[in-house]
Amino acid sequence: MTQIHKDIKRVFVDEASIIARSKELGKQISEDYDREGKNPLLVAVLKGSIPFMAELMKHITIDVEMDFMAVSSYEGTRSIGDVKILKDLDRSIKGLDILLVEDIVDTGRTIDQVVQLLMNKGAREVKIVSLLDKPSRRVLEMNADYIGFTIEDAFVVGFGLDFNEKYRNLPYIGVLKDELYQ
Ligand code: IMP
Ligand code: MG
Fold first, then answer.
1. What is the pLDDT of residue 80?
2. Which pTM was predicted?
3. In the annotation, is 90 catalytic?
4. Domain with 115 in it: what CATH number?
5. In this predicted structure, what is the pLDDT of residue 37?
6. Of all protein residues, whose CA lies closest to atom 19 belonging to ligand 1?
7. Mean of the pLDDT values across residues 11-34?
C-alpha cells in the first residue's frame, strides 16, 4: 500500500488510476496518429509534466521523439504569446506535428502561450494532452485534445504538481491539509 504523505488531506487520484488512464490515453493517441500517418514530437513543459510524460510515453506504440522546454511569463504582462523561454527546444520544429504534454490546464493561459510559441516556431500542428483539467477555472477558450482526469476547482499536488516546488515526487494526486496554505 502506498504510504500517504503527512501533509496530504485526501488522495484525489491514486497511482494505479493514473497508470491505467495513461495506458488508455497512450493507446488512443497511438491509434489517432497512426490513422493519420503522423509521428509526433512529444514536448513537455518543465517541470510539472515530467512524471506524466514518463508514464504516458511508455504506452505510446508508434515511433515518437521527445523534447523539453521551460518558460515563464514576463512580469506584469498578460499579452498573448509574450512568454520568456528559460530553456529552449533542442532543435527546429519547423513542419513537425507536436503533442504538447501538460500537467494541468487551469486558466488556460500557459497552454495558450506555449501553443502560440510552438506555432511561431513553425510547427505544422500542435495538439495537447493534459493529465488534469480544471474547466471551471478557465479564462481562455483553450482545451486539451486528450485529458486524463477532469477535476473540480481544488489546488492539487503530486505526480509532478507542486506547492512552492514541493510534493512533485508524490506518486498520486492529492489535496494538502488546510493548515499548509496558511
Ligand atoms: P494555467 O496557465 O492557469 O492554465 O495554469 C497552468 C499551470 O499552473 C500548471 O502548469 C501548474 O504549474 C499551475 N497549476 C494550476 N493549477 C494547479 C494545481 O492545482 N496545483 C499545482 N499547480 C497548478
Ligand atoms: Mg507550478
1. 52
2. 0.94
3. no
4. 3.40.50.2020
5. 98
6. 155
7. 98
Assigned domain for 172 exists: no
Note whether residue 107 is domain-resident.
yes
Which atom of ligand 1 is least distant from the CA of 110?
2
Note whether residue 178 is domain-resident: no
Residue nearest to atom 16 of ligand 1 (CA): 106
Q: Which residues line ligand 1 (CB under 6 A)?
A: 48, 103-110, 155-157, 161
Task: Please report which ligand is nearest the Cα atom of 105.
Answer: 1
Q: Backbone phi, then psi, for 171, in 5-degree steps? A: -80, 5
Compute φ and ψ for 70, nearest 5 degrees: -125, 135
pLDDT of residue 81: 52
Q: How far is the CA of 105 from the centre of ligand 1 (A)?
A: 6
Work out the average pLDDT over 120-124: 96
The domain tally of the chain equals: 1
